[in-house]
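protien #1 (seq + structre)
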Amino acid sequence: MRTNSRRQLVAGNWKMNGDKALVEQMQKQLAAASLENMDVVICPPFPYFGQFDSKLKLGSQNISEFDSGAHTGEVSVAMLKEFNCQYVIIGHSERRADNHESNELVALKVAQVLKANLTPILCVGEPESVREDGTLFDYIATQLDAVLLKVGISQFAEIVLAYEPIWAIGTGKTASPAQAQEVHAFIRGHLAKQDDKIAANIVILYGGSVKGNNAQELFSQADVDGGLIGGASLNPEDFLSICQAANQ
């Protein structure tokens, strides 16, 4: 049961999906909704940033660790700020796997985002093999510690965390509310070893096959503060139902 005052957040990660029609549909759907008690962020592919109006908060799915220069295909924080981007997803499991992003590179990117006064959505999470072999908490602590070493605990006041069990992304499997709560509580406790107040106030999202029919139970857990939504964020009605669950 939630008893804290942390404001819930739902971020839609479109990944390499979407088109202009979806941008228009999503804006209409959310503009007509009453969601005063939570925050919504849309993270579309880069070409669609300019299609959104200023009413929606935008997030990027990635960022370069460099300010500028000869880095073909990369995007800088300065470019994102020109499009009113406020959030940046860092360390998503797909980027860690597909693009070989190490914990150290993730930490560099978090530092780059913080330097630009944007909000990192820092993703951590385990593959199924790690959960099964019993090293889950050590695995997640290592991911967190790389960023703590780079930016320090004080900077976590400006970070949003997202726990994404890799085995539940796009598979239809979902961590049970109790499983999600257990890991979120561990994350908060791990940060509390360095700063109780920052740990108590940090927003921790759950990401892993969240849908309209399971969102409310997940979001009602004491340490689950919303969701990082993949597939369901591509359907405006489904995404709205998840946002409404957070709004309650």
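ok now protien #2
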Amino acid sequence: MVSDKSILFFDIDGTLLTEEERTLPASTKKAIFQLKELGHEVAIATGRAKFLFDDLREELGIDTYICYNGQYVVFRGEVIHANTFQPEALEELTAFALHNNHPVVYMNDKKMTTNVPNDHPYIKESIATLKVDAYPTQEQDFVKHNKIYQGLLFNTEGEEEIYQQTFPDFDFIRWHSKSLDILPKGVSKALGIKKLLEYLDFPAERQYAFGDALNDMEMIQMIPNSVAMGNALPEIKEAASYVTKDVSDDGILYSLQQFGLLPEDS
């Protein structure tokens, strides 16, 4: 590996894409292409399902990514790591959630489904914020016949505590006021990044990570050159080594220029 080249990991929502509109700033798109032209390795690290950012990957020409919060890792189009849930554990969690009238959505590598009516207001509200075409279908016994990479639990803030106590082998990470990611205990973007870095030879000082939300915490803590967006949560800003401008204020481009990865006149 050429020593002056770096690897950069970018979260999507609130980092590559703006918070409300979920649009890609022109300065960010240009910066990503400039990084690639200079020979840097550009990767996406997201909590999104694989099928929920196909368009963005195509638009940016990125074929290296960590998705489902570290459960699924692809290097230049090749899957190098894929971790799935045990169906029995998910069935137990589903039954508990149904008892509490909390919908659950499960995702494989192609779609997401729920075994409750999919017009539940919590599902509609939280999925709508992603600004994607995909939407959960209603399908019984999906977890019994598919490899599940991630789940979504729908409830309000504070209601996750009973799940954390009852299911210690799971992590519940809130990404919306009505929804949480469901992951195996200890799984994170950082774990997925470690799997990828086993294939590569970038020194620590040539590793960069950009994020804004709770599911970025482990990644921000692990990567030496960690960047919190100006719109990031306070705890992410505190954990990062650098805080840039808001995503909508050319925050990605600004930070890359400050690091010297791109020229000031980009």
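The CA atoms of residues 212 and 232 lie 4 Å apart.
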